[in-house]
Amino acid sequence: MADLSAHHGERFEISTKRECEPEKWNSVTGRKNGTREDARLLNSYLDAMQLKIYDIQKQMIELNAEKLRNRINGVSDKSKDILEIFQDHNDKLAKMVGSDYALGTLGRYRTSYDHTKAFIQWKYKTSGFDIHKLDYEFISEYEFWLKTERHLGHNTAMKYLTNFKKIVFICVKKGWLIRDPFVTFKMTLKEVNREALTSAELLNISNKDLPSH
Q: Which listed residue, 73, 111, 114, 158, has the most CB atoms within 10 A of its CB?
């Protein structure tokens, strides 16, 4: 646990997500005693974290505890609604139908938007959702909802999640999100096994009279 101070002297603690035996901790230096590999790795991590904090402090003139904590954890300060960003994407895509995109592509993104909006209303009972709240749980719950509430097959659900992932990636590229919530979420398609036609079925097809043009 690190004890930090914000711009106006407001103090707060933030987890370093590392552990150290109490008897080996040096409270004066704020580092682990010893020269073994585990001590060296922990101290190097703490050095890097301290440099990151100093760098963030230099970038921000007004720095309260909440803002500093967010920046250390990779969270931007400005709130943005994922549905508004999604709608803006679709509006721009609609203007490029016929030149850069097909009408079917627009239809898929509009359906994906509708699914996302319905899921947020179903799960969180709200009409909007802050992008900074997007995480692994949101995505996995969204997948579950698509399969159970919308009764979609695995591959179809993955396609809609792929559309949603593009919107999230826009947030990352524009600097609104520092961390991609899809990083640890595995998106794989299942192989579809199609049964081969029997000899009788093939013979039946070959004997059919097909209309000539």
A: 158
Contacts of 200 (CB under 8 A, 6+ apart): none
Q: Which fold has domain 82-173?
A: DNA polymerase; domain 1 (1.10.150)
Max mean pLDDT range (18-32, 45-59, 99-113) = 99-113
Q: How far is CA 90 from CA 65, 93, 104, 163, 209, in A?
A: 37, 5, 12, 11, 46
More confident residue, 54 or 49: 49
- Burial of 16-41, coded b for 16+ CB within 10 Å and e otherwise, reads eeeebeeeeeeeeeebbeeeeeeeee
Over residues 125-143, the pLDDT tens digits come to: 999 999 999 999 999 999 9
Q: How confident is the model at residue 114 (pLDDT cuts 50, 70, 90)?
A: very high
Task: Work out the widest C-alpha separation in the chain, in whole angstroms.
Answer: 91
Q: How far apart are CA 119 and CA 142, in angstroms?
A: 7
Measured CA to CA, the distance from residue 206 to residue 211 in angstroms comes to: 13
How would you write 48-82 as a 3-class SS string? HHHHHHHHHHHHCCCCCHHHHHHHHCCCCCCCCEH
pLDDT at 97 over 80: yes
User: Residues spanned by CATH 1.10.150 within the chain?
Assistant: 82-173
